[in-house]
Amino acid sequence: MAKITLDRLRHSYMPDPKGPQDYALKELNLDWQDGGAYALLGPSGCGKSTLLNIISGLLHPSEGRILFDGKDVTGLPPDQRNIAQVFQFPVIYDTMSVYDNLAFPLRNRGVDESRVKTRVEDIAAMLDVTEMLGTRAAHLSPDNKQKISMGRGLVRDDVNVIMFDEPLTVIDPHLKWKLRSKLKELHQKVKVTMIYVTHDQTEALTFADQVVVMQEGQVVQIGTPVDLFERPAHTFVGHFIGSPGMNVLPAEVKDGATFFNGEQVTLEGAVAPGEGRHEIGIRPEYVTLGSTGIPATVRKVMDLGRHSVVEAVAGETRVSAIVEGAVPGQGESVHLTFRPDQTRLYRDGWIATKQERAA
């Protein structure tokens, strides 16, 4: 296990990059603590795979360093970084038994057979595949094949880090929750540094202690799942995380006050000075429908069982609200109010309000 440090890391696939727009991975400084569970989250093309390949040694960065426990490994090839990796598709030997698949990484390193037996049986118990140890891998279901692929990554207890590259993409949706829960449970038992790469917010938020959210090669926020939901540092984070995502509303700031659709809006705290494009961010959970507030018209209502999502239009802007109980009908007039301590101003995408401290 190791603490992983990314020091002024940048990468461009161009031989002579001229500016930030030419970098697939913009400057990154980051520490991943020994034994932590981390996720890299973002849409396709945001730089997740580039960063993963740099950490694993498959790609040499244009600039910066990668350190494992303070040792510079930037120039080391993958086989000298002591990394285990679990890929999107199961990497197993169909002609081997489950036992031999799990034993292979250890036997390949000359581990004593008694130790191999102990580790294989421990991992098999964690994965609930003990009864399958004698089964040939070709006969397994897709989810069990991916369990074995995960087990091959987990069976060694001397690795610096285990990296998961979208490991549940090919798994049936009804099995994903089960495997996500199992992976979280495994991390709590083995305490190995794990990095989980995904574009799925549910996977990232249920697995990781800390989530690194990326957009267009840039890290826009690092935090706990609660941090990302409760106080997005960037409008992209607010929009990307949550279902539905945060409302991002055009705003005007004048004479120290903030307005949406001509109505003054109370924010969580003071606005940092500066110029730029202003927007209000408010999650649907903190929008209330009532008889006073910002005038709007209900556009549609989606009944999700435990609650409904009401989409209203204020002026020309759509605003979503999560409502429990009775809801207005399509076309009805309503008024919107925003919970002040959850209403934030963003400038050019970045948060521009200061959180008020409780007395």
TrEMBL record:
Record keyword Coiled coil present: no
Alphabetical list of InterPro entries matching this protein: AAA+_ATPase, ABC_transporter-like_ATP-bd, ABC_transpr_FbpC, ABC_transpr_MalK/UgpC-like, Mo/tungstate-bd_C_term_dom, NA-bd_OB-fold, P-loop_NTPase, Transp-assoc_OB_typ2
Similarity annotation: Belongs to the ABC transporter superfamily.
Keyword Protein biosynthesis attached: no
Superkingdom per UniProt: Bacteria
Positions of the ABC transporter domain: 4-241
SMART domains with a match to the protein in the record: AAA (SM00382)
Example GO molecular function: ATP binding
Designated name of the protein: ABC transporter ATP-binding protein
Source taxonomy: Bacteria, Pseudomonadati, Pseudomonadota, Alphaproteobacteria, Rhodobacterales
CDD domains for this protein: ABC_Carb_Solutes_like
PANTHER family documented for this protein: ABC TRANSPORTER ATP-BINDING PROTEIN, MALTODEXTRIN IMPORT ATP-BINDING PROTEIN MSMX
